Amino acid sequence: MAQVNELFPTTNTVSGEITLVEYVVSLDKLGVHDVEHVGGKNSSLGEMISNLAGAGVSVPGGFATTAQAYRDFLELSGLNEQIHAALDALDVDDVNALARTGEQIRQWIMEAEFPEQLNAQIRTA
């Protein structure tokens, strides 16, 4: 089974320039070696689809968004800077401050717009 980084290169190995970014991958293309690209649950679903479908076990299809999609979402939305600033100012010994900051960061993420490329790939999937 091909790994995500083989299917969807993000860096041109000749020039070093980013040439293609895939944010969405079909679960049936994933396997145990793709954990760093799509997380453990998604790679496990890919393994189940590959290994159990032939045995008659019904595993739902679908798609995974990649870790790169998440990183680019945070960067392009400006959330990386906001989150780091909030965490830098946080008193980690103050449990109430931890809860408030966590809630604020979750709210920022929920309100942020997805990059158009990610939106388009999700709609296509």
Descriptive overview:
Pathway: Carbohydrate biosynthesis; gluconeogenesis. It catalyses: pyruvate + ATP + H2O = phosphoenolpyruvate + AMP + phosphate + 2 H(+). GO terms for molecular function: ATP binding; metal ion binding; pyruvate, water dikinase activity. Its cofactor is Mg(2+). With 125 residues, the protein is mainly α. The chain has one domain: ATP-grasp fold, A domain (Dna Ligase, domain 1). Strands 1-2 form a two-stranded antiparallel ribbon. Helix 5 packs antiparallel against helix 6. The two termini are 20 Å apart. The N terminus is likely disordered.
Give the topology, please.
Blueprint: H1 4-7, E1 24-26, H2 35-38, H3 40-52, E2 63-65, H4 67-76, H5 79-88, H6 95-111, H7 116-124
Antiparallel strand pairs: 1-2
Catalytic activity: pyruvate + ATP + H2O = phosphoenolpyruvate + AMP + phosphate + 2 H(+)
Cofactor: Mg(2+)
Organism: Pseudomonas syringae pv. pisi str. 1704B
How does the major sheet shape up? 2 strands, antiparallel
Beta-strand percent range: under 5%
Total domains: 1
Number of helices: 7
Structural class: mainly alpha
Strand order of the largest sheet: 1-2
Which terms would index this structure?
disordered N terminus, two-stranded antiparallel sheet, 125 residues, 54% helix, 2 strands, mainly alpha, Dna Ligase, domain 1, 7 helices
